[in-house]
Amino acid sequence: MVQKGRHPAPQGGRLNNRRREILAAASGLFRSHGFHSTGMRDIAVAAEMTVGNLYYYFENKQDLLAFCQEDAVRRLLSMAHRVMRLDLDAAGKLWLLIVGHIRCLNEGVPGSLAHLQVEELAAPARRRIVRLRNQYESTLCALVVQGSTEEDFLSTDAPVAVRAVLGAVNWTVQWYRPKGRMSLTKIAETFATQLVRGLLKTGVEFNPPDDRLLVSTEPVSSAATGTQEGGHL
User: Fold this and answer.
1) What is the pLDDT of residues 43-81, one digit of tens each?
2) Residue ranges in the chain whose pLDDT is less than 70
3) Contacts of 231 (CB under 8 A, 6+ apart)
4) Cβ atoms of 156 and 100 closer than 8 Å
5) Distances from the Cα of 232 to the Cαs of 2, 95, 114, 228, in angstroms?
6) Among 98, 146, 175, 217, which residue's CB has the most CB atoms within a 10 Å radius?
7) Could you give the C-alpha distances from 78 to 29, 83, 95, in angstroms and in order?
8) What is the CB-side half-sphere exposure of residue 144 using CA atoms within 13 A?
């Protein structure tokens, strides 16, 4: 008999790496069938494991979803903390964060299609993840305010501008596919350039920074992921 709720705490490198492998198997099901139509048995089959073994790592589908979302937002926060320490202006930092955000959701965190399903979480997990998201959003808002102070960005409401940016980048998980005519890197850089230029005042020149500055922005506890070539529009 499966004893739900007896799996290890969601910490530790090897445990989290195995959980990400399960999410990688589940991600295709989420994309093709949707979160609601994907069952734990389906995920177990895709991950080539028994249902009982799957319950060792995730108590239920909400547990899997909570791990997916928290893993994603913690990676984004780690990236943001590193980028904010770089010697760049606000536009350059924002450009890097947009590029890194799109990469993280589409290649760094398997199953990140579920990133948009925060309303499906139980209240304690939802509150925890919303708090982490708010920290990340505040960092982006600070960059928009900085850019306006430096007189590079148009005067705008920072939270509204940031939510417009996040809406665009988060939605890439709905249509991005691993194979196609444009790499994920190119998609991310195109998005970032268009979104940053939309905030700039007329006449302000912008040259994107070297995206290799993002190479060291993975959190220490997370497995490094390479740049995935073969994106799709």
Assistant:
1) 999 999 999 999 999 998 888 888 888 888 898 999 999
2) 1-13, 108-117, 216-233
3) 106, 176, 177, 178, 180, 182, 183, 184, 185, 186, 187
4) no
5) 40, 21, 19, 11
6) 98
7) 28, 9, 16
8) 24
The Cα 26–Cα 30 span in angstroms is: 6
Residues 6+ apart with CB under 8 A from 186: 231
101, two tokens:
């955000």
In which residue are the tokens 């007189």 written? 151
Q: Is residue 216 within 8 Å of residue 164, measured between CB atoms?
A: no
Tell me the C-alpha distance between 102 and 168, whole Å: 10
Q: How far apart are CA 23 and CA 67, in angstroms?
A: 9
